[in-house]
Amino acid sequence: MTVLPLDIEGPAAPPRSNGELVFAAPWESRAFGMTMALHDRGLFEWEAFRQQLIRAVARAEAAGGGFSYYRCWLEALQTLLDTEGLVDAAAVEERVGVLACRPPGHDHEHGH
Amino acid sequence: MSPVPAPSDLPVELRTEALESILVEKGLVDPAVLDKFIKTYAEDVGPLNGAKVVAKAWTDPEYKARLLADGTAAIAAMGFKGPQGECIVVVENTPTLHHLVVCTLCSCYPWPVLGLPPGWYKDPAYRARAVREPRALLAEFGLELGSEVEIRVFDSSSEVRYMVLPERPAGTEGLSEEELVPLVTREAMTGVAKAKAP
Questions:
Q1: pTM of the shown model
Q2: What's the complex ipTM?
Q3: Where are the domains positioned within chain B?
Q4: How far A8 CA lies from chain B's nearest CA (Å)?
């Protein structure tokens, strides 16, 4: 097993104060919030999500390259929702395609 | 089950937005509830909670005994409870015994007292090396421990989440509970640092 260097200066560096931002980007907070809201409604057991997260983390580490914890989190949530029959993975991909085709300069959720 | 494409195939922001829009349309997620969870964990629940627990334990021997005997109950007694706090075990650092906390498989962490885990806690290097070479890892965090100090590594899981009760720093005998709180960092409560000197 190779020794992985611990990132001392970069984005995964140990924070030097308690004021570190919890989420590095808005989408990370949305992925987190969705998961909590779904679990809060009793739609899945936390352990079921955790098992998916463990698998997603293991896959990402095996694949190498840059590690994004919340990418693993999102992948785990999608897989779980697909497995539980709540949201079909293909429906998400279709929606991504629709969103990607929006005209430039759009903004979302204005409710107009 | 249909395969979920690799995360790198599509922009992750779009994937997140797509999933959220579907969940809201299906009525599975209330956007207000989603926003409330984000705000709670981004702004309200954080290591300040754990710092209050530690400062109380440093100044109240009876509370410290309760905390070490049943961390979950003693922490809940201070009003800190919620998801990922179902079973919290507190382990005490001493001059000859140092505890380090990790989650080797994912990122289990006692949210009610420490908030969401920081980047380094989730990093593959930290998760692998905490178990394999904790002394070298701690040295990279700036914590050089002498050979007389035994290091014990605790692996948090969904069943048990660990929090470290750091040693009270020397020279703090005259400080009140409130004055001690700022000395207790998230790093001290996971065991990658000691509490700050006053």
A1: 0.81
A2: 0.80
A3: 9-43, 45-190
A4: 8
Q: Which residues contact B15 (CB under 8 A, 6 or more apart)?
A: A74, A78, A92, A96, B7
- Contact between B166 and B54 (Cβ < 8 Å): yes
Residue A58 lies in a domain: yes
Q: Is B171 left (phi over 0), alpha (psi -120 to 50) or beta?
A: left
pLDDT of A2 > 70? The answer is: no
B163 phi/psi in degrees, rounded to 5: -135, 140
CATH class of B45-190: alpha beta
Return mean pLDDT, chain A: 79
Residue B87 known to be catalytic: no
- Give which of B63, B67, B73 is closest to B92, Cα–Cα: B67
Concatenate the DSSP letters of all residues of A52-70 into one string. HHHHHHHHHHHH-S---HH
Q: Which residues of A touch B48 (CB under 8 A)?
A: 18
**Is A14 within a domain?**
no
Chain A: residue whose CA lies nearest to B12: A71
Asked whether residue A96 is domain-assigned, the answer is: yes
Q: How far apart are CA B117 and CA B109, in angstroms?
A: 6
- The whole domain housing A34 covers 26-100
The band of A105, judged by pLDDT with boundaries at 50, 70 and 90, is low
Segments of chain B scoring below 50 in pLDDT = 1-3, 5-8
Partner-chain residue, chosen from A5, A29, A99, that has the shortest CB–CB distance to B18: A99
Is residue A16 included in any domain, yes or no?
A: no
Is residue A64's pLDDT more than 90?
no
**Which residue, B40, B14, B23, B9, is CA-closest to A80?**
B23
Say if the Cβ atoms of B129 and A46 lie within 8 Å: no
- Chain B residues lying within 8 Å of A80, measured CB to CB: none
- Interatomic CA distance for residues A49 and A51, integer angstroms: 5
Provide the domain count of chain A. Answer: 1
